């Protein structure tokens, strides 16, 4: 496997800094559409949950989606 180009690494690090510059956990997740739209677009995920188990949020930024899925599924 080849190593990523250094410019790619720099770009990824700058995105991380941009996300974490915000106080809003939704924006820290890299989403800038607001909480209401976040919920509207993502809450349907729990329709696929039919039993207890594990949920892996790949590329989860700050874990906000995983936290919300737990809350939505509990309802």
Describe this structure in words.
- The chain is mainly alpha-helical and 75 residues long.
- The protein has one domain (6-74).
- The protein is 51% helix and 0% strand.
- It has helices at 6-20, 25-28, 35-42, 64-74.
- The protein is globular.
- The model has no long low-confidence stretch (mean pLDDT 88).
Head-to-tail CA distance between termini? 44 Å
Order of helices and strands: HHHH
State which percent range the strand residues make up. Answer: under 5%
What is the alpha-carbon Rg in Å?
A: 15 Å
**Main sheet characteristics:** none
What is the β-strand count?
A: 0
Helical region count? Answer: 4
- Low-pLDDT sequence parts: none
Percent of residues in helices comes to: 40-55%
Oligomer: single chain
Structural class given helices, strands, pairing? mainly alpha
Topology:
Layout lengths: L5 H15 L4 H4 L6 H8 L21 H11 L1
Structure summary:
The protein has helices at residues 6-20, 25-28, 35-42, 64-74. It is mainly alpha-helical.
Short key terms for the protein model shown above:
single chain, 75 residues, mainly alpha, 4 helices, 51% helix
